[in-house]
Amino acid sequence: MKKLFVTSVFALLLGVLFSLAPSPAAAQCTMCKTQVESARTEKDGYDFSGLNKGILYMAAIPYLLVGAVGYFWYRNSKAKKPARR
């Protein structure tokens, strides 16, 4: 029972940590946007059409990894519990 409590507290703290993390990370998108806008006005000849897709790709990978780990963790924890009759 104590192990379940420790795991729950750890998961709660990890969730709080992840919910606080995006605040500083949002500044990077503003920086990228500013750089792209300045480069477009200078007419450097660069193609920035794939920038938004690249940002979404980089943002999706951590969510997919955490989801996969959570799925396998859930599946393995269900498999280890004995069936009640």
Verbal overview:
The chain crosses the membrane at residues 55-74. Residues 1-27 form the signal peptide. Keywords: Membrane, Signal, Transmembrane, Transmembrane helix. The chain has 85 residues and is mostly helical. The chain has a domain at 47-85. The protein has helices spanning 2-20, 22-42, 51-80. It is elongated.
Keywords:
mainly alpha
Helical content class:
over 70%
Enumerate the spans where pLDDT stays under 50 for 5 or more consecutive residues. Answer: none
Shape: elongated
**Arithmetic mean of pLDDT:** 76
Rg, alpha carbons: 21 Å
Q: What portion of residues belong to β-strands?
A: under 5%
Largest sheet at a glance?
Answer: none
Number of strands: 0
Structural class: mainly alpha
User: How many helices does DSSP assign?
Assistant: 3
SSE succession: HHH
Signal peptide: 1-27
Transmembrane segments: 55-74
Keywords: Membrane, Signal, Transmembrane, Transmembrane helix
Short description:
The protein is an all-alpha fold and 85 residues long.
List the helices and strands and how they pair.
Blueprint (H helix, E strand, L loop, with lengths): L1 H19 L1 H21 L8 H30 L5
Keywords: Membrane, Signal, Transmembrane, Transmembrane helix
